[in-house]
Design goal:
Number of helices: 13
Mean pLDDT: 90
CATH architecture of the largest domain: 2-Layer Sandwich
Low-confidence stretches: none
Shape: elongated
CATH superfamily of the largest domain: Bira Bifunctional Protein, Domain 2
Structural class: alpha+beta
Distance between the termini: 51 Å
Order of helices and strands: HEEHEEHEEHEHHHHEHHEEEEHEHEHEE
CATH topology of the largest domain: BirA Bifunctional Protein, domain 2
Helix content: 25-40%
Number of strands: 16
Strand content: 15-25%
């Protein structure tokens, strides 16, 4: 039996959002979507719950381990609570909007729920806002996604950001060119994920003279894009890896052209969190802020057993991290109005920037005390707003 003291206890990773934070998050979410819309992206609103086979198909398969499941009492089929909105938008594009002109630009905002949090993001429920550009295969589409995400953050007042661009398909291509597979490939992947340069060099010793140290050199080439891109361009890569490198170089160049002042880094070996991506990826950070502000990249939308889908790129912004990067919200002055104040006057006060709170039967002599008790900083005296400290 639940005791009264346990009534507010919530599961780990879940929390109530209280005033003024809840209103501020809602405001920022809508500002982000408005920013997307001004740049030609149209909003979609997928359901919170879907049938499991649809939700976890294609790109959604990457979220299988993070998805809560439940039985639909109507259809008796298994359903899943969305853990990410990108697969849902990809489904909409490949079904309901299959005949819409390409490239298709869609945006969204909503809550997601995950089975477990991470070290940087222990929250299991949080809000996302993002965009998907479906049907654009060129590097220009990837650069548009990066620029749009950064511009949307600028629009809400976050200008101190850095972007890290990766190519998770590059390392697998290098291994294919070198004939590395099985346990050896897994060992390399684990060492690269840990950024363990010593282990990568140790594993590289048996690859032969031509390939020796190549993966170690690729790991060492991560860092500031303007200084590291020349090093990446000179690496003696095989045919498949060279193609992936060229894609990376093109995206970095396009982003640099659009955002020449944007701090830009490259990480040619990063893979974690981008398991379903098929090309360039990016992550947005803000100095001193826990967790990434957003991430995105190239993938195949609508991919399934019968189809390879269509090229797509996009990004997701995380509202919890974004709020940590912003100053506390500026609150509008709160005014306490005596009982009987006219609705027209209250409407004018709200138009002037006040939040109004009307008295509910309080005596005139107690107005100041009641206003302070309810957190008001102004009272209405003879139709004029007066700060409490001056009255």
């Amino acid at each position: 039996m639940i005791q009264p003291t346990d009534a507010a206890l919530l599961p780990a990773g879940l929390s109530d959002s209280l005033p003024p934070d809840a209103a501020f998050e809602a405001e920022i979410r809508e500002k982000l979507v408005a920013s997307f819309a001004l740049r030609g992206y149209e909003r979609v609103n997928p359901p919170l719950v879907e049938f499991e086979e649809g939700l976890l198909a294609g790109t959604g398969a990457a979220m299988t381990g993070q998805t809560f499941r439940l039985m639909d009492p109507v259809s008796q089929r298994m359903m899943g609570l969305r853990a990410d909105m990108t697969p849902q938008v990809a489904r909409i594009a490949s079904t309901r909007l299959a005949h819409a002109p390409r490239p298709l630009r869609l945006c969204y905002a909503g809550e997601v729920l995950r089975v477990r949090g991470s070290q940087l993001r222990p929250e299991r429920q949080f809000a996302q806002a993002g965009c998907e550009l479906i049907g654009g295969a060129a590097a220009d589409a990837d650069a548009e996604a990066v620029a749009l995400a950064v511009d949307a953050l600028f629009d809400i007042g976050i200008s101190d950001v850095a972007v890290d661009i990766g190519m998770p398909t590059l390392v697998p291509a290098v291994m294919t060119d070198l004939g590395i597979s099985g346990d050896a490939a897994q060992a390399f992947r684990a060492a690269l994920d840990r950024k363990d340069a010593a282990e990568v060099k140790s594993l590289s010793k048996e690859l032969g003279t031509d390939a020796k140290g190549l993966l170690a050199a690729l790991l060492a080439a991560s860092g500031d894009a303007r200084s590291q891109i020349p090093s990446i361009g000179k690496l003696p890569l095989g045919k498949l890896a060279a193609l992936e490198r060229e894609k990376l170089l093109q995206v970095v160049a396009r982003v640099g052209q659009q955002k020449p002042d944007l701090p830009l880094t490259v990480d040619a070996v990063e893979n974690r969190g981008f398991e379903y991506h098929t090309g360039a990826t990016f992550t947005i950070f803000a100095p001193g802020v826990r967790g990434e502000l957003g991430s995105g990249g190239r993938y195949q939308a609508g991919r399934n057993e019968a189809s390879d889908g269509e090229p797509a790129t996009g990004f997701t912004l995380f509202l919890d991290s974004i709020l940590r990067a912003m100053p506390p919200p500026a609150s509008k002055p709160k005014l306490y109005a005596p009982q009987g104040t006219g609705s027209e006057l209250l409407a004018r006060l709200r138009a002037d920037g006040f939040r109004t709170l009307s008295a509910l039967g309080a005596d005139a002599a107690d107005i100041k005390a009641e206003a302070r008790r309810l957190g008001c900083d102004h009272i209405l005296v003879d139709g004029t707003p007066v700060p409490l400290g001056k009255h």
